[in-house]
């Protein structure tokens, strides 16, 4: 049970508090909703769930299996099987989207908006089921899927429903009263860190602008996107307007290579993004890329340190650090470095790692064994390069599943691998600086440019620093805040194009 005399982090007793955490327990609060899950899911093409082509062959011959398991990373058990979409399946999905396009684009915009509203409402109505499924499939804490992923996914559909019949006001350059034309068929590929939310980011603006879509979810987290397909059926969305083709990277590649796709919208790693850019070059396909990051979180000596420590925690440990814009490089002004590190240790020790379906859990399971191995590799690398690892050992980790304790490194040099490369896990690199100029130079010394955080009490410093940071988003005295009205996207190797807000619509119309 919670200690009734819990001191605040600014209390002089905070180190006693850290010690007392070892005896400090919450009563378990497991989520009680149990969604129905079929043994196997097909592909969603032309408004129906269909078996993948080649499934008959695969059952009889020694060919590639037509289904693959989706695993619960907190237990390592198989949840169900999901179809491996082939190039032929992708072709069928693109054809369905192409056939649906003229009627969908010609639909009065107000009617298109109504479908988006209905999808948003249905996501809200099925929110608990979607949240549980997101957590089972991907490992993220139920607190996050329930309070962040699913409400934000609904918010994206609501927001874009509002735009559907107002597009002619969105682009000042277009001729008065003329609604910009949609692009056609959009191929959309998303990663595993925010599965339903990323699907909403992609589908909602595309549909609002009158496009039709073929979306490929990530291999490890297809389940909520398949529920979204069910929702499309429930709201009576015309056949072929949304198609979902599950599978691995090869399915994504087939979508990128398909000649009848007008636009590719990709969110994922920089390596795959570069490959896609090369393939799409010269084909006439439109392209937007939301890629990786190594975002700086900068703490000045005049910041409210307790608040800043919350921002550091939010920046790097939210969603196990599986966040493209994670504040994974922490820059602290030298005069407050020791105090910040002391406070960070205490706060980190209070994070609970464990069962993602427990409402008290702060840090759930790492999404896959592959990702866990990647994170471990970086931790080993950090140690080998001479940085010092500080790890929270408060939680007792479950026996099965993929787990990683929250940690941070001190004694990090800008040249260290952990300060340069994206780890995509709950591992923070702490660096220091003396002057605002040094903070800016060090923060910008990266091939990425997705996000940044600045913590200071001085309004003048906010402007001075924020305007010089090369990042798509700069958060001031906060971190990891998302809203459908606010455009999101990167510079440099973090990609190009924006998602969300007015700017996000531009990627889905001819203008
Ligand atoms: P990834 O390996 O690039 O995969 C992303 C998606 O692309 C998955 O659906 C993947 O399928 C598919 N894919 C893989 N190879 C492909 C290919 N050759 N052609 C077409 N599609 C292909 O990235 P990830 O490891 O899943 O996700 C983590 C990365 O995404 C991180 O770098 C993170 O920073 C970035 N991210 C960026 C943003 C942003 O908005 N900037 C948001 C979230 C994540 P499989 O699932 O089968 O691999
Ligand atoms: Mg899974």
CATH fold-level topology of the largest domain: Aldehyde Dehydrogenase, Chain A, domain 1
Percent of residues in helices: 25-40%
Mean pLDDT: 93
Quick one: CATH class of the largest domain? Alpha Beta
Distance from N terminus to C terminus (CA atoms, Å) equals 59 Å
Low-confidence stretches: 1-12
The fraction of residues in strands falls at: 15-25%
Number of domains: 2
Structural class: alpha/beta
Rg (CA only): 23 Å
Shape: globular
**How would you name the CATH homologous superfamily of the largest domain?**
Aldehyde Dehydrogenase, Chain A, domain 1
Largest sheet: 7 strands, mixed
Named CATH architecture of the largest domain: 3-Layer(aba) Sandwich
Oligomer: single chain
> Could you give the order of strands across the largest sheet?
14-15-16-13-12-17-18
- Count the DSSP helices: 17
Count the E strands: 20
Quickly describe the structure.
The protein is α/β, with parallel strands linked by helices and 511 residues long. Helices cover 39% and strands 16% of the residues. Helix 7 (195-208) links the parallel strand 7 (185-189) and strand 8 (212-216).
């Amino acid at each position: 049970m919670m200690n009734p005399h819990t001191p605040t982090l600014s209390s002089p007793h905070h180190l006693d508090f850290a010690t007392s955490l070892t005896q400090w327990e919450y009563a378990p609060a497991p989520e009680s909703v149990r969604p129905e899950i079929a043994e196997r899911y097909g592909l969603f093409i032309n408004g129906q769930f269909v078996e993948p082509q080649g499934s008959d062959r695969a059952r009889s011959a020694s060919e590639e299996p037509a289904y693959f398991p989706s695993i619960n990373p907190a237990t390592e058990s198989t949840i169900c099987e999901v179809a491996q979409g082939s190039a032929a399946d992708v072709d069928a999905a693109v054809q369905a989207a192409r056939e649906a396009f003229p009627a969908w684009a010609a639909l009065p915009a107000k009617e298109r908006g109504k479908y988006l509203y209905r999808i948003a409402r249905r996501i809200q109505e099925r929110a608990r089921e979607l949240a549980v499924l997101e957590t089972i499939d991907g490992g993220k804490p139920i607190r996050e899927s329930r309070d962040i992923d699913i409400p934000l996914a609904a918010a994206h559909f609501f927001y874009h429903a509002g735009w559907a019949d107002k597009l002619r006001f969105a682009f000042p350059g277009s001729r008065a009263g003329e609604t910009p034309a949609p692009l056609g068929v959009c191929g959309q590929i998303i990663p595993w860190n925010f599965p339903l939310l990323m699907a909403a980011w992609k589908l909602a603006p595309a549909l609002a602008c009158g496009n039709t879509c073929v979306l490929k979810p990530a291999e490890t987290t297809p389940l909520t996107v398949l529920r979204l397909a069910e929702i499309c059926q429930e709201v009576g969305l015309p056949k072929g307007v949304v198609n979902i083709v599950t599978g691995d990277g090869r399915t994504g590649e087939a979508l990128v290579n398909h000649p009848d796709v007008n636009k590719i919208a990709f969110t994922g790693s920089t390596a795959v993004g570069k490959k896609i850019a090369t393939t799409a070059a010269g084909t006439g396909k439109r392209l937007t890329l939301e890629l990786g990051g190594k975002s700086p979180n900068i703490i000045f000596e005049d910041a409210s340190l307790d608040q800043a420590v919350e921002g550091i925690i939010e920046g790097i440990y939210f969603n196990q650090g599986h966040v493209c814009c994670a504040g994974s490089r922490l820059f602290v002004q030298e005069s407050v470095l020791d105090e910040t590190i002391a406070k960070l240790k205490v706060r980190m020790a209070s994070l609970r790692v464990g069962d993602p379906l427990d409402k008290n859990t702060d840090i759930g399971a790492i999404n896959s064994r592959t990702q866990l191995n990647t994170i471990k590799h970086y931790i080993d690398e950090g140690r080998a390069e001479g940085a010092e690892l500080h790890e929270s050992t408060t939680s007792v980790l479950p026996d099965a599943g993929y787990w990683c304790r929250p940690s941070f490194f001190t004694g990090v040099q800008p040249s260290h691998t952990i300060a340069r490369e994206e780890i995509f896990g709950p591992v923070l690199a702490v660096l220091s600086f003396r002057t605002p100029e040094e903070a800016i130079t060090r923060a910008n010394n990266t091939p990425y440019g997705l996000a940044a955080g600045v913590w200071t009490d001085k309004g003048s410093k906010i402007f001075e620093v924020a305007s010089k940071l090369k990042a798509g988003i700069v958060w001031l005295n906060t971190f990891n805040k998302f809203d459908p009205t606010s455009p999101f996207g990167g510079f440099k190797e973090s990609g190009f194009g924006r998602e969300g807000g007015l700017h996000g619509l531009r990627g889905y119309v001819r203008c």
